[in-house]
Each structure stands twice: as C-alpha cells, then as structure tokens.
C-alpha cells in the first residue's frame, strides 16, 4: 500500500514530490518552502548587518530526525510511513512546534516551518526554539485506529529527541487534541509516570487548556483588530474573506461574525462560498459539523477554493496552507490588508507586487502566534501544576500579541521596512544576540 498518497487530498497540487531540482546535495532540508523562509530571513539579516557565520548558523536546522516505520492496517496488511522532526535552533531553550499529517509532509517542509517557529517564538518573547514534524499520510483515507497506530509508533520513534525540557510537540494540520492525548500516553508509558508537559494542545481533562483549540484563530482576530484600530476603521465595519475552514479558519470566521464583521467568503479544500451581504457563519459551521466539509453547502454562492482569495473584501485571511497567494493571482487580490493565519501563504514574488500596490501584509510569525503562545501557557501551567482560568489566558494572549505588534511597528519605523521584515528583524536580532552570548561550544 502506498501510505503517502491518496486522491483528492488537500495539498496535492502544491508540492511535486518527484521534483528535487531545488535540493542541493548535502542540504536535503532545502525545499521551495524553505527557500521562501530563507529569503525572508536573509532580508532581515541584511537589515541587521548580521555576520556571515551567524547567518549560516541560523539558516540551517540544528537537528533532523527521519523515521520510517511500519503500521498494521485494518485489512491486516502492513504499511510503511515516513515521519520527520526538525529542530531549528537549540539556542533559546527547548524547541516547540506542531505535528502535521498530510500527503506533502517532507523534510524540507518541516525545516521551513521549524524556522518560522523560531522567529515566531522570538518575536513573542517565548523561551523556545522552533521545531516542526509530521508524518506523510492522508488522514482522510485512514481509519481512527490506523491514525492511532501511526501516532503511537511515530511518538515512540521520537522519544530520543523529545521531552518537556527538550522538544514539546503540538497540533498542526491534520492533528488535534486526540493525537496529542495519544502522544502524551505513549510518552508517559515509556517514562513510567504521567508527563503532561510533553505535548500542548491536549484535551483539558489531561492538563490541556480549553483556550488552546481556538487560540490561533482568536489570536488572528486580536491582531486584525489591533491593525484595524491603527488604521482608524474598526474590524466590525469591514468585509473579510477566510480561506480554510479548519481549526484556525473556522474559529477566526466565527469570532469575526460574533463581533459583527461581514464574512463575505470562506473555503475549504472542497470549494468555497461567497455572499456580498455576508455569510451566516454559525449555520455554515453547523453544516461542516454534520458533513465534515463545505461541499454541497447551500448557504451562499459557490466559488473555487483558491478563487475565494479574489472575492472583493477589505481584509483577507488565508488560513489554509502555504503558497496560496502567488504571482499568478496577486494582481487580482482586492484586499487592503492580508492577515496571514496560515504559515507561508504568500510567496516573496507575490508579496513584492502586493506591497508595491500598498497592500499591508501582517506576517504569519505575528498573525498566527496565538497558538504557540497559549501552548506556552499550557506548558507553564503543567510544569507548575497550577491552572489558570480562561479569561486570564485570553487576556494574557491579547496583551502579548499587542505587545508584539507594537515591537513590529517600532522596528518597521526604525528600519523603514515592511511589517514582515520588521517582525523578522526583531526575532532574528533576539536569537542572534542569544547565540552570540552563549558562544560556540567547546
Ligand atoms: P486544519 O487541518 O484544521 O484546517 C485546514 C483547512 O484548510 C481545512 O478546512 C482544509 O479543508 C483547508 N484546505 C486545505 N487545502 C486547501 C486548499 N487548497 N484550498 C482551500 N482550503 C484548503 O488546519 P489548521 O490547524 O486550521 O491550520 C491551518 C493553517 O494554520 C496551517 O498553515 C497551519 O500551519 C497554520 N497554523 C495552525 C496553528 C494551529 O494552532 N492549528 C497554529 C499556527 C499556524
């Protein structure tokens, strides 16, 4: 059985796994996505006049683990899966980052996402380096039991490099509370006692927090609110499009609807819906709860899953996956502000065109940092065995995101650069300073 593929998966048209032309020998972590992450890093490194040795050190992932492992399938056959865990920097403390289950998961994808996690944590002032991992599989084609088998075996393969003070996984695309509970249990069985701090994004009854699941989507809205305030036009008076109706996109759309903003377009991998007068988001969420996807939903007029990005609006929130806003569609995007809920949704080429037209891009490292911030709160609470209440968590989240936005504005003015370069320069400077202070061992 081919464990990695599958028809109609969400990401099948974004990464050609046979195309290795971008891989330089000895740098297997390179990928198109890593090229984008590196280009953003280099721009910030130029602004900071970072020296060559430090640049190279911060560009490359510190550790990469690749695991190939067998899992018994429901029909009795055995399928082999490939998983990765990339730790981008060990300078800032333990590493932290999500686990992704998707057909296009690769070393290069994990390396790019791990680097972004480093910059995100540094921008927010969290005591972590970045990591990312995942298993190449299509969860849509697997049974619950098969996913549990994959998760437990993958978790046990990771034991040599993860731990509450080493590397703490969390959910990402295709994984959630359920998978985190299995990892918690697998790790705890191996240690001989319960270790709640090994993962974040767990179910609340296992030491998770109710605030984690909606944290990224809520954070996206908090940041969009701060941006709208600065522009002098409240978010509730704006038209918004959200691409992706999973954890992040659906939460953001629901919160936007709740504060009175008009959500005029949404989509998932099966297609999208639009309505000039605004969509009924609670009714659409109800449809998805019963049907899993937006396919066939009658609550708006149909639009393509990518074409939704071109629906006229004030604020565009790509919340699906990387490389959605490209040279091919940038000129047709009408939004004045793009809030990057997904990681890496805008290619550098598209970004140049949009910035030239005066479109404001709120970079992923700021816009979607709500998830890792509440993960950090969860980890702190588990370490202290002292739980905070929901209001306290949400207030702290809003405060940290607003502080980070303030840092971005300040750096943007100081260096006279766009918000992405400003955010990256704050983050890179922090990590570079830590690396310099720690020096080189031995
Ligand atoms: P998810 O799996 O819950 O949802 C992804 C959504 O995107 C689904 O609705 C899916 O149908 C849709 N989608 C997939 N391919 C699409 C396509 N080609 N066109 C339109 N829609 C498509 O994942 P998530 O956790 O919501 O993550 C979404 C993005 O946010 C990812 O880039 C992820 O890395 C990023 N992110 C997530 C978190 C988190 O806490 N979950 C934190 C930070 C960043």
Mind sketching the topology for me?
Elements: H1 32-48, H2 52-59, E1 63-72, E2 78-87, E3 95-102, H3 107-124, E4 129-136, H4 144-158, E5 167-171, H5 177-191, H6 215-231, E6 239-243, H7 247-259, E7 262-268, E8 271-274, H8 281-291, E9 301-303, E10 315-318, E11 337-339, H9 348-356, E12 360-362, H10 364-367, H11 370-384, H12 390-415, H13 419-438
Parallel strand pairs: 3-4, 3-5, 6-7, 6-10, 10-11, 11-12
Antiparallel strand pairs: 1-2, 2-4, 7-8, 8-9
Nicotinamide-adenine-dinucleotide (NAD) binds next to helix 7 and strand 7.
Description:
The structure is a single chain. This protein is α/β, with parallel strands linked by helices and 442 residues long. The chain is globular and about 55 Å long. The chain starts with 31 loop residues before the first helix and ends with a helix. It has helices at residues 32-48, 52-59, 107-124, 144-158, 177-191, 215-231, 247-259, 281-291, 348-356, 364-367, 370-384, 390-415, 419-438, and strands at 63-72, 78-87, 95-102, 129-136, 167-171, 239-243, 262-268, 271-274, 301-303, 315-318, 337-339, 360-362. The strands form two sheets. It has a seven-stranded mixed beta sheet with strand order 9-8-7-6-10-11-12, sandwiched between helices. The chain has a five-stranded mixed beta sheet with strand order 1-2-4-3-5. The longest helix is centred in the last third of the chain and has 26 residues, at 390-415. The structure holds nicotinamide-adenine-dinucleotide. The site of nicotinamide-adenine-dinucleotide (NAD) has 27 residues, from helix 7 and strand 7.
């Amino acid at each position: 059985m081919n464990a990695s593929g599958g028809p109609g998966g969400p990401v099948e048209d974004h990464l050609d796994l046979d195309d290795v032309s971008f891989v330089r020998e000895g740098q297997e972590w390179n990928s198109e996505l890593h090229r984008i992450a590196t280009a953003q890093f280099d721009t910030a490194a130029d602004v900071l006049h970072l020296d060559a040795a430090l640049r190279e050190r911060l560009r490359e992932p510190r550790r990469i683990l690749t695991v190939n492992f067998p899992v018994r399938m429901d029909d009795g056959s055995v399928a082999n899966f490939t998983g990765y865990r990339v730790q981008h920097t060990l300078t800032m403390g333990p590493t932290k980052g999500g686990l992704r289950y998707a057909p296009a998961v690769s070393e290069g994808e994990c390396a790019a996402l791990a680097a972004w996690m480093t910059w995100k944590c540094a921008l927010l002032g969290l005591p972590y380096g970045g990591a990312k991992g995942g298993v190449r599989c299509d969860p849509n084609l697997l049974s619950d039991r098969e996913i549990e088998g994959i998760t437990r075996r993958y978790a046990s393969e990771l034991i040599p490099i993860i731990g509450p003070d080493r590397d703490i996984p969390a959910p990402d695309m295709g994984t959630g509370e359920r998978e985190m509970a299995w990892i918690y249990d697998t790790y705890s069985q191996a240690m001989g006692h319960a270790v709640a701090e090994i993962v974040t994004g767990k179910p609340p009854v296992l030491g998770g927090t109710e605030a984690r699941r909606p944290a990224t989507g809520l954070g996206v809205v908090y940041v969009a609110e701060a941006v709208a305030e600065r522009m002098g036009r409240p978010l509730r008076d704006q038209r918004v499009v959200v691409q992706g109706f999973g954890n992040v996109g659906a939460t953001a759309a629901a919160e936007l609807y709740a504060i009175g903003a008009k959500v005029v377009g949404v989509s998932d991998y099966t297609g999208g819906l639009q309505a000039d007068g605004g969509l009924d988001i609670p009714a659409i969420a109800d449809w998805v709860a019963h049907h899993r996807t937006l396919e066939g939903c009658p609550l708006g007029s149909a639009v393509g899953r990518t074409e939704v990005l071109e629906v006229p609006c004030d604020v565009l929130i790509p919340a699906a996956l990387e490389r959605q806003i490209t040279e091919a569609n940038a000129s047709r995007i009408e939004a004045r502000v793009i809030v990057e809920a997904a990681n890496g949704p805008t290619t550098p080429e598209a970004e140049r065109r949009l910035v030239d037209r005066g479109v404001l891009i709120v970079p992923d490292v700021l816009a979607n940092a709500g998830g890792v911030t509440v993960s950090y709160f969860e980890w702190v609470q588990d370490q202290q065995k002292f739980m905070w209440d929901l209001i306290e968590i949400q207030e702290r989240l809003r405060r940290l995101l607003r502080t980070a936005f303030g840092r971005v504005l300040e750096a943007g003015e100081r260096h006279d650069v766009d918000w992405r370069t400003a955010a990256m320069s704050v983050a890179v400077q922090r990590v570079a300073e830590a690396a310099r202070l720690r020096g080189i061992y031995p």
